[in-house]
Amino acid sequence: GAVSVISLTLKLLDSIVDWERLFTDSEIIPEDRRIDIACNHIYGRCGYENMNTKLELLGMAVAHYFEDKGYQSMYLPATYAGHVGIGVKIPGFHGPFSHRHS
């Protein structure tokens, strides 16, 4: 078993956390599309997909650091990896544990 575990976090941008207010009174994005665009495109990509990718890369860098120092190391990828479609490849499987609750 694991002797030690490291958990990494990244702060979301304030505007991403408050995505429901994005584009209010926008001259570019129509009101009837605003929530869909803010939620699916902005929050989905910037607040979820990109953050998961960044955390995976940081996890890999930390794992390499410890391995280079002579320790056995492993990192666990994000539960939902949009870039590899894991949710589609393994229906009902959501990863080895909850990163959100680590």
Describe the protein's architecture and organization.
The structure is a single chain. By secondary structure, the protein is mainly alpha-helical. It has one domain (14-89). Helix content is 45%, strand content 0%. It has helices at residues 14-17, 31-68, 86-89. It is elongated, with a radius of gyration of 17 Å. The mean pLDDT is 82.
Please tell me how large the radius of gyration is.
17 Å
Instruction: Give helix and strand order, one letter per element, not per position.
Output: HHH
Number of strands: 0
The average pLDDT value, as a whole number, equals: 82
Stretches where pLDDT is under 50 for at least 5 consecutive residues are none
- Given the helix and strand composition, which structural class is it? mainly alpha
Which percent bin holds the helix content?
Answer: 40-55%
